Structure formats: C-alpha cells, structure tokens
Amino acid sequence: GTGDMTDYSFDDIGNTTAPWSPYYNTMKTVVIEDAVTSIGDRAFYECIALTEITVPGSVSVISLGAFYACDDLAKVELKEGIKSIEKNAFSFSAESVTIPKSVETLSLAAFTNVKTLNVYDENGELRSVENPNINSIVDPKSTDWKSAGKMNESISWILDDDGTLTISGEGQIPDYTNGLYSDFMEYSPFWFNDNIKKVIIEEGITGTGNYTFSGCKNLKSVSLPSTLNSISMGTFAETGLTEVTIPNGVRNIYQESFESCEDLKKVTLPYGLKMIGFSAFNLCKSLTEISIPET
Fold this sequence. Notes:
It contains no helices and 25 strands. The chain is globular. A hairpin with a 5-residue loop joins β10 and β11. 0% of the residues lie in helices and 31% in strands. By secondary structure, the protein is mainly β.
C-alpha cells in the first residue's frame, strides 16, 4: 500500500490492535514496500519470532514502540530517507546499529539493548557513540548529546559521566508503564538503563512514580529525601540495589516497588509506615535484614 501506517494501541488483554497480531509468535519476516511513508505506533510490538527487518527510505518516521520487544531481531537495516526515529522504536540485542545520514531527530531511547550507535557528524563522517539509552531527543549529527531533561514542568534530571542520576524539583515524579496493558505506552526515560549507578532524589520530591527506575541493573545505591511520602509501584523493581533506607516521611510502599532486586541485602523501614503493598520485596533473594521501628 501507500502512505502512513495506522497507529495501534493495546486491547483489554494486552495484545496490540494491529490486524496481524494473532501471528506475532510465528511471523519471522516483514516486508515494508517503498510506498509506505511511516511505521505506526506499536505496529510490530512484541513480534518475538521476527529475525530481520529492512526499513525503506520512503519511510519518514519510525514511530513509538514500532518494533519494541522484538527480542530475536538479529538484523536491522535502515535506509537513507528516514527522518525521525522515536523512543522505544526497537528492542533487540546488538553490538551496534547505523543511523542513516538523513535522520534529523533521534530519540536516545530508540534502541534498547543496542550497545553502540553509529551516526554521521556534520561533516558526513561516521562516528561510534555509546548508546546512552536516555529519553532525550537529539540531532544525531550534533556532538552535544546532553543526558538531561524534564519529567514534567516542575521536575528535572541530569545524569553525569560517573553514572549518578540526580532528580530535582517539587512534587510527584510522573507514573510510567512497564509495558503491560498500557494504551499510552509512556516508558520512564531511565527504563532498563545500564549507565545509571547511583540515584539522588533531592528534597522537594514527594513521590517516586511507577516504574521510574525499573530494570536499571547497575543501580547500586539511592538517596531518598525527607519530603518523600510514598514509594510507587515498581519504582525500583529489577535494579541492582544492595541496601536501602526509607525516610520517615514515607507512609506507603506500593506493590512490586523493590521486586526482583536480587542483590538487595538490607532494608530499613521508617517510623509511621502504614502499608507495604503486595510483592513489594518479592524475589529479593539476598534480603537477610529488615529493620522495623518500634512504633
């Protein structure tokens, strides 16, 4: 066919609304013809049998989650003519991927699990850049890729070269999805980011947001502010935390907040804690010490 592909969402049981979704488990090859001008949101989301894809130059935009969770992808070829690649467009394990010269806007969260991005600079020279896997939008020709951004109007973040992520501002960090049953599919800018080693949440932040740091395997320590009143669902799930002290202002620790933190050994709970949600510390295999206050 010709023109833009439809954007797809999720149905009530978590499958995408794409007409070919019943074949996601068996579909190994997708042919996108030259007259197609965009690949829609979630078009081939979780095509787990897909092994290779070529995106022709007629496609100007590869949209949100287009090939996300296609974990068996072994070959991705992007042709000249593509203008924009949006966040979570691809998720596959590879040493590198080459971004065409024609690309003008690139989400640095477009290629989950790819180690290196090969991009062309302003002089047309190919250079290799370690994939920051951060939800920032850049011109790939620029050398000024800042690992910084805003989570909303009142909360900002910056990730330094040592792997320390600092979040500052006021109020509740926004909630994010873990990819299940989500029609809007808004992933955290730090989703499964291996570059994050330490998190500092500064005074003024009141809530951590659902799944904000989920999957950050190299995250070993976190500093939480006294202004915090809750730890949200899945916030630190599947991270590398070894110890956590929860400040006294926290009243609720929601479900799955520290689930599958396999290196977590010690947890200090706060005074005034009212609720610990279902599976909050589920599958924390190394957890041997929990400090519980007397009142």
